[in-house]
Amino acid sequence: MTNPNLPERNNEGFLEDPRAWTPAVAEIVARESGIELNDNHWEIIQFLRNFYKEHEMSPPSNRLFVKAVKEALGEDRGNSIYLMGLFPGTPAKTACRIAGLPRPTNCL
Asked: Which residues are known catalytic residues?
């Protein structure tokens, strides 16, 4: 995937270097997925970036992603229906791509 406004990405659209991420990059990647970012998205993106900074990995699966969000942000945000509404498809994979993080290891 080549976009002159984006850092280098792999064949699934994940940044090769998470340090190259910026909010502007997130906006472009989200638009490619048909997502217009709002405050709810940014809350999850910031959560993921903090998670990555602390654990040096993306949440490894949707199940652990939902659980981690629930523990950090509460039940209303830490449920799969809410997260699927924000990040359609596979929420952990979609959210990590937008947040500039590596692909979750157990996501299809």
From this structure: 107
